[in-house]
Write a structure and sequence with these properties.
The complex is a heterodimer of chains A (600) and B (80). With 600 residues, chain A is of the alpha/beta class. Chain A is 40% helix and 19% strand. Classes of the chains: A alpha/beta (600), B mainly alpha (80). The interface between A and B is medium-sized, with 21 and 16 residues.
Chain lengths: 600, 80
């Protein structure tokens, strides 16, 4: 049974929402000392008004997420100069992401006195001007660019008939924003931050302090700048490959109100009315996450059969057994269960989010598994749905078919595991799975996924070279490289694109630049099949030697013996990497019971 | 609630002991125009008051801030 949280102390719903002042962040940012295990990121800010303190805020917010940020804020209102000058500090800084915050009033200063025709023309001109700047920025940097939409003015002298004009003041800005949004649709580098949506969330009157505006050109008050930083964190998670993959959930007083063991299926709080509704909405939010590919798991002290009964019989229990890739309902401690969940799902502890109403359990996880992100659920369940809405940690820059299906794929994985228990040896297990491996070249439809795999795969990754979409595109167009990927399917489901190889073709030998497989398909000897394919291709072109590299990281020990066990010979070995050679005169054996198709 | 000295020491990054009525941008290096505004913003939140623009512009030293807070009826936390 769950212990009900009796703590009366005021808690913050989670780390990414808080009430700290700007000065807190400015002071804290001076104390940060980089830890070895931290990821690095570089952030730049361009703006036409005062944003002092935003960079410091983000440094601290990043640090709380084990990310060390270096920042560069372009001097006040010099964004255009810095973009145009190819040897500017901005380019020298070599940022991973550039945030552009422009104030519409300053940018479109003379618009208020125009008639509709002039305004339409002027909007178009200003848009072209900014688009030109963004294009120059894109040519000179690989950084992601985040452009804030312009604030739609709240005041119009026309008052209640403002929106009867074809090209009113407000509509002009809307049009401008729409044009920018369409520019970003097929652009993997440009992202649009919906500043107007942010303003409605915060309330514009809370965002602006008019005397600060006039005295210090602060278009956003110091208090509100902190909140912008919090919103911007949504970009930092995918940028640093820190996006979370799985939510671990408690049951009593988390997925429903009350204690199941005491109150029974009929009496738990869960339903369309009053105090049952927050739990229903909370489950809706979680189901939405599942549908966009987030893995769900249960970690609860309860009676297994009671819980299954709720899932089967309770009318408003939205989350069913087959939404969970891993279910730990037992009387073991939550730390052990959490570790087991990560192990069974074969994902890193740092990709887990832990949701539990019990403060003691949360503190236990924080203490013993600090890699796990622990969300402090508020005491009031009516705030539960908002907790999910405010989590920025599931953001990605692209969404692939594989992403959308991940939650379901892990549920299929659970069924595969059950089969494995029934079958005696690995080979007959693999045969029964009926694995199909399809090998294809990089092309428009899969480039994002290939780049994503290089960024996210840590364990079975021989060189851990991270590439962006643009890099993969370049390789695939070059005659000196081949880029191949595999998609894998078995009788329980489709894994999608889960392995890639990038090979550099030299005259006499081929060098495997990258070779990686997603953890989901490991343990099936698929990596041997994929390597076999590369060896055959090299033989076909009369190449003498295939060279593999192994670059050791904290996370890839799993791949350490890959070349050795596949009869490669160790060549050079330095602290940095090992070089392995395969003489292509030799025969290479790999499992033949796979169905291999080539969709090249 | 914090005291005025705590707020000032926090924002300007100086010891509380260094702060007196005559402390001003002229004799404290870290006190720039941005910090004045940040001070105002956090003093307003802390003491639950709102200054107008002229009042903010009239701030030349700590004593001015005290006078303003007094004018807005704040009695606690000003002098310690």
């Amino acid at each position: 049974m769950e212990k009900i949280n009796s703590s009366k102390e005021k808690e913050q719903p989670n780390k990414l929402i808080n009430e700290n002042n700007l000065s807190y962040y400015i002071n804290e940012s001076k104390k940060l000392i980089k830890k070895k295990s931290m990821k690095d990121v570089k952030l730049a800010f361009l703006s036409n008004f005062t944003i002092n303190g935003l960079a410091e805020t983000m440094k601290v917010l990043c640090f709380e997420q084990r990310i060390y940020a270096e920042t560069y804020a372009v001097p006040y209102n010099q964004y255009a100069q810095e973009i145009l000058n190819k040897s500017s500090k901005l380019y020298d800084f070599n940022s991973d992401i550039i945030f552009i915050l422009l104030d519409s009033e300053q940018l479109l200063d003379s618009m208020y006195k125009m008639d509709e025709k002039q305004r339409e023309k002027y909007t178009k001109e200003k848009f072209d001007e900014l688009r030109g700047l963004i294009n120059i920025l894109k040519e000179n940097t690989n950084a992601k660019i985040v452009f804030n939409t312009l604030l739609v003015p709240l005041y119009s002298s026309r008052g209640i008939i403002e929106n009867k004009q074809k090209f009113g003041l407000k509509k002009s800005i809307h049009r401008f924003n729409e044009m920018f949004e369409s520019l970003s649709i097929d652009d993997s580098q440009l992202f649009i931050f919906d500043f107007n949506s942010f303003c409605s969330k915060m309330g514009y009157e809370n965002l602006v302090d008019r005397k600060m505006y006039y005295l210090g050109d602060m278009r956003i008050s110091p208090m509100a700048l902190v909140n912008i930083g919090i919103e911007y964190m949504a970009y930092i998670f995918p940028l640093t490959s820190s996006t979370k993959k799985c939510v671990i959930l408690d049951l009593d007083n988390t997925l429903w109100g009350g204690i199941l063991g005491e109150e029974g299926t009929e009496n738990i709080k869960l339903g369309p009315e009053k105090d049952g509704k927050p739990f229903l909405d909370f489950q809706k939010r979680l189901l939405e996450l599942f549908e966009r590919g987030i893995i769900l798991a249960i970690n609860s002290k309860n009676n297994y059969n009671d819980v299954i009964e709720v899932m089967k019989k309770h009318k408003y229990m939205l989350l069913k057994e087959n939404n969970f890739a891993c279910i730990k309902i037992n009387w073991k401690d939550k730390v052990t269960n959490t570790r087991e969940i990560a192990k069974e799902l074969n994902i890193g502890l740092d990709s887990l989010v832990f949701l539990d109403d019990d403060k003691t359990n949360r503190e236990l996880i924080k203490k013993f598994i600090p890699e796990v992100m622990v969300v402090d659920l508020p005491e009031d369940p009516s705030l539960y749905p908002k907790v999910i809405e405010d989590l920025k940690v599931f953001n990605t820059f692209t969404i692939t078919g594989e992403d959308l299906n991940r939650g379901k794929m892990y549920v299929s994985q659970k069924k595969r595991g059950e089969l494995k228990l029934k079958v005696k040896d690995l080979e007959s297990f693999l045969k029964q799975l009926g694995i199909k491996v399809n090998i294809s070249s990089a092309k428009k439809s899969n480039i994002s996924r290939i780049a994503q795999l290089t960024q996210k795969t840590n364990q079975f990754n021989l060189t851990t070279r991270r590439y962006q979409d643009a890099d993969i595109k370049k390789f695939s167009e070059s005659k000196e490289y081949i880029v191949k990927c595999i998609d894998v399917e078995d009788k329980f489901g489709d894994y999608g694109i889960t392995g890639i190889a990038i090979v550099k073709k030299n005259k006499e030998d081929w060098l495997v630049d990258s070779f990686l497989l997603s953890c989901r398909i490991l343990g099936k000897e698929i990596e041997k099949v994929f390597l076999g394919f590369i060896i055959e291709e090299a033989k076909k072109e009369g190449i003498k030697k295939l060279i593999g590299e192994f670059i050791s990281t904290k996370k890839n020990s799993l791949a350490k013996d890959f070349y050795k066990s596949n009869k490669f010979e160790l060549g050079k070995k330095t602290n940095e990497k090992e070089i392995w050679n395969f003489d292509l005169k030799n025969k290479y054996d790999y499992p033949k019971f796979f169905i291999i198709t080539k969709d090249i | 609630m914090k005291t005025l000295k705590e707020l000032v020491s926090n924002i300007l990054g100086i010891d509380k002991e260094e702060i007196n009525d005559n402390s001003s941008p002229d004799n404290i290096n870290s006190w720039d125009s941005f910090n004045t505004l940040m001070l105002v913003s956090e003093i307003e939140k802390n003491f639950n008051v709102k200054f107008n623009m002229d009042e903010v512009m009239s701030i030349k030293n700590i004593n001015d801030i005290k006078k303003l807070l007094g004018k807005h009826g704040v009695t606690k936390g000003i002098n310690d």
